[in-house]
Amino acid sequence: MRERTTNRAEATVPLPEHPGRSYTAQESERDRAMRSEAAGHASGRPRVSREPLARADRLLVTLLAGLFVLVAAMLGAGALAFSTLSGQILGLQEQVGDLRTEMHEEIGGLRAEMHQEIGGLRAEMGKLSDRMTRIETLIETHLVPRSAPPAPGS
Question: Is the distance from CB of 43 to CB of 17 less than 8 angstroms?
Answer without folding.
Answer: no
